[in-house]
Amino acid sequence: MTAAAEPLLHKLRAREATIGVVGLGYVGLPLCVAFAEAGVTVLGFDVDPEKPKALERGESYIKHILPETLAPHLAVGRLAATTDMARMSEPDAILVCVPTPLTKHFTPNLSFVESTMQAIREVLRPGQLIVLESTTYPGTTEEVVKPILEQSGLKAGEDFMLAFSPEREDPGNESFTTATIPKVVGADDAASLAAAQALYELFADMVVPVSTASTAEAVKITENVFRAVNIALVNELKLVFARMGIDVWEVIDAAKTKPFGFMPFYPGPGIGGHCIPIDPFYLTWKAKEFEIVTRFVELAGQINSAMPEHVISELGKALDQRFQRGLSGARVLVLGLAYKKNVDDMRESPSLRLIEKLEGRGAAVAYYDPFIPVVPPTRDHPDLTGRQSIEWDLDQIAGYDAVLIATDHDGVDYVGLAGRARLVVDTRYACMRAGAPLEKVVRA
Q1: 408 part of a folded domain
Q2: Contacts of 201 (CB under 8 A, 6+ apart)
Q3: pTM: predicted TM-score of the whole model, two decimal places
């Protein structure tokens, strides 16, 4: 154990350490709460000044983080937030939870990670622990993060500790919390691994150490590639079974009664969220460095990326068959903007692509989403910024030529919708599950 690690381990085990969290979004803010609930002082950092301001007012900008959850920690100063990156010298451990998007050429964009590490480098002090949580390709911690931090003149594993721990947040999942989801940690030296393990043991029910940072990075990539590939499989089966007159949802419901050898995945209008649409491309990009073509993973990406176009094609055919009209000039209501049900997270949501593609075909498009009343700014869909959800009014909804169910939020009156709408194109099996009348419902 290095001399720099011993004081940090002592402070962590005594719960006297201050924890810094960079990036106060869907990953960072729950982490702040988990540490605060464990009785540890937390200082959050974000470049968006509105987030620290909201927390200072006692407000939450994430649906599943309630203001009353934040209030006791804010009141006693156990939780605070700032935009002043120079204060990153204060925490004993810093967790970095910043975006890792793709470029327009589907290659990794690590600019947020790099700029954050450059800011940390300017104030890095001996004895600190730096943990990257942002999802990335295996090798990022060693090849990108470590060299930037060591430009400070300090050495990883000797003067400061460095580790990777993949985030595993699942917004809207009421069965698991940040504390009950096992936490994987990996580092390239014993001191860093011990410090990272002690850090997460402050709140996590289970900490799973692995041998290297690259291994921990590979764990996260594997988890999300697994989902992407299986979703692509059921999306392809949906197309095949539809041609055969077989309902893929009925097939999956029956298949999942098998108590072994099968895990249910479900088709949809595409994939969304901050991980599944992005992570496989991080792996395929890195694999090329080793002269490996990830054909299976790339095929899954192609299938999933093609689903919005398939949905629009089915909507166009349904309009033609029922009303003898095409998409041009049609009034379409997209139901659900979030990437999955019951959350206010629309990152990489296929609904955004659906709206833009429909409007590109000449349709007049509105949306309804009780969780996203106004479209926030996005990098890839700036023209949608500021659009507002319609109010739920079946009389108004009956005036649309078609309703496209892209996200199956609970609490929606699918029975009433199917009864009043002129046409419903259901990509989520929502009407069938609700027992709605199906005369005007088309599955896509």
Answers
A1: yes
A2: 207
A3: 0.91
Domain boundary among 161, 180, 213: 213
Inter-axis angle of helices 5-13 and 190-200, nearest 10? 20
Q: Per-residue pLDDT tens for 84-102?
A: 999 999 999 999 999 999 8
Same-domain status, 303 and 417: yes
CATH number of the domain where residue 98 is located: 3.40.50.720
Give yes or no for residue 171 having a pLDDT over 80: no
Q: Which residues pair with 366 in a beta bridge?
A: 333
d(Cα 74, Cα 21) in Å, to the nearest integer? 15
pLDDT of residue 243: 94
Domain count, the chain: 2
Q: Catalytic site residues?
A: 275
pLDDT tens-place string over residues 214-234: 999 999 999 999 999 999 999
Least confident residue range of 167-171, 257-261, 419-423: 167-171
Decide the pairing of beta strands 207-210 and 183-186.
parallel
| Domain match, 51 and 143 both | yes
What is the rounded CA–CA span in Å between residue 2 and residue 139? Answer: 24
- Based on the domain organization, do 206 and 103 belong to the same domain? yes
Taking Cα atoms as reference points, which of 272, 430, 268, 270 lies closest to residue 345? 272
Predicted pLDDT of residue 1? 64
Tell me the two tokens of residue 398: 């009956």
The percent of residues in the chain predicted with pLDDT above 70, rounded, is 100
Q: Mean pLDDT of all residues in the chain?
A: 94
Phi, psi of 284, deg, nearest 5: -65, -35
